[in-house]
Specification:
CATH topology: Alpha-Beta Plaits
CATH architecture: 2-Layer Sandwich
Distance between the termini: 9 Å
Largest sheet: 4 strands, antiparallel
Helix content: 10-25%
Strand content: 35-45%
Structural class: alpha+beta
Radius of gyration: 17 Å
């Protein structure tokens, strides 16, 4: 199993959710996050004074999937989240050693 984390633009969440559903993802965790990358934030003007907003609002989508679904999930996220402009986000993949459904005690892929 793998954990796929995607940091995306907030307005792309519905498209990503729909794309993941189409490839067989049944659940996900979504968190509102803030961060910055190469751009270092963006310059804003408030009452005539310029200042830099260091952290840009983003959404983090986390899904745990069987190894066989990793490539379709990555493709679905990449296609749905892409705008072609800077700040589209990143996708990370990590191994998951174990998963346990607390209610039933199921383990491994059955718990996901």
């Amino acid at each position: 199993m793998k954990k796929v984390e995607a940091i995306i633009k907030p307005f792309k969440l519905d498209e990503v959710k729909e794309a993941l559903g189409e490839v067989g993802v049944k659940g996900m965790t979504v968190t509102e996050v803030k961060g910055f990358g190469r751009t270092g934030g963006k310059r804003e003007v408030y009452r005539g004074s310029a200042y830099v907003v260091d952290f840009v609002p983003k959404v983090k989508v986390e899904v745990i999937v069987p190894d066989a679904l990793v490539v379709p999930v990555l493709d679905a996220i990449e296609k749905a989240a892409k705008t072609g402009r800077i700040g589209d986000g990143k996708i990370f993949v990590s191994p998951i050693e174990e998963a346990i459904r607390i209610r039933t005690g199921e383990r491994g892929e059955d718990a996901v």
